[in-house]
Amino acid sequence: MTKFKAIRIDKDASGYRAAFSEFDETELMEGDVTVRVSHSTVNYKDGLAITGKSPVVRRFPMIPGIDFAGVVESSTHPDFKPGDEVVLNGWGVGETHFGGYSQKARVKGDWLVPLQKGFTAAQSMAIGTAGYTAALAVLALEKQGMTPDRGPVLVTGAAGGVGSVAISLLATAGWRVIASTGRAEEAEFLKHLGASEIIDRAELSAPGKPLGKERWAAAVDAVGSHTLANVLAQTSYEGAVAACGLAQGMDLPTSVAPFILRGVALLGIDSVMKPKAVRLQAWERLARDLDKAKLAELSTTIGYDKVIETATAILEGKVRGRVIVEIG
What we know:
It is a single chain. This protein is an alpha/beta fold. It has helices at 44-51, 121-143, 161-172, 187-193, 202-205, 225-233, 257-261, 276-289, 292-297, 307-315; strands at 3-12, 15-24, 33-41, 67-75, 85-89, 104-107, 112-114, 153-155, 177-181, 195-200, 216-221, 235-243, 265-268, 299-303, 322-326. Strands 3, 4, 5, 6, 7, 14 and 15 form a seven-stranded mixed β-sheet that branches. Strands 10-9-8-11-12-13 form a six-stranded parallel β-sheet, with helices on both faces. It has a two-stranded antiparallel sheet with strand order 1-2. Strand 9, helix 4 (187-193) and strand 10 (195-200) form a beta-alpha-beta unit. Helix 2 crosses helix 3 and helix 2 (121-143) crosses helix 8 (276-289). The two termini are 13 Å apart.
């Protein structure tokens, strides 16, 4: 199969647009591994890329999709051979290098990890960058010395991809989880995942004070802006916050007070360029602690033809948990 279908993003005098298009294998970008893609997913970042609401895509034309899973078709990389099942998260794929919303992908083998034992390709995309980022955030909190005996942990954007997986991982690790969401109808679902308490995101989303009452020992924040500022202001002495998203905005209207008066640590979580050893550690944690039954409950499967409309829905807050895309 030299011809294949992919979503193509163009930006020119006619504007910014995403549509399905036919490609030839000769048009794929440089790499030492060619993968037949079977599954992808829709992350918040993918929504931004497809709609153009944020400058995620930095070259045109582009095939979006920051994640994919599939089977190696050809390889000159020493770690991979035809038939190997592989997963990719990040590395600029879908931004500067053709990505996962494609029946074929050619990438550097150093960007790939083997499909974790115990996961199917579809399950790996139910996790995707959002779930893998949640695992990185949990690992970062633990590296900082955060343990459940310190007090509760807050998860913002709780009904989203990062939040839902973070709740499950943290609850499994013994934390009392407080979930912040603007979707009251998801309260029972979030409690089922492991949350002990639900708070309305409105408590955190407006401008707040430099310091507030100490309410949690740690937090995973996927929202940014005023929400992150308020999360920091209400984190207890020598607590830590793992920041990994910008659903409310890229700004951080806070002060130095949480840092110099309470010794709060702000831990930045980058999932895109993490070295392979850390990626494998995160995937091993997911394989060990993520309940596959709950993963199935927080996941929805869509056809390849539904990606573009789902990208809009995720930005509108209409998507619960994780989305699996069947490319195959």
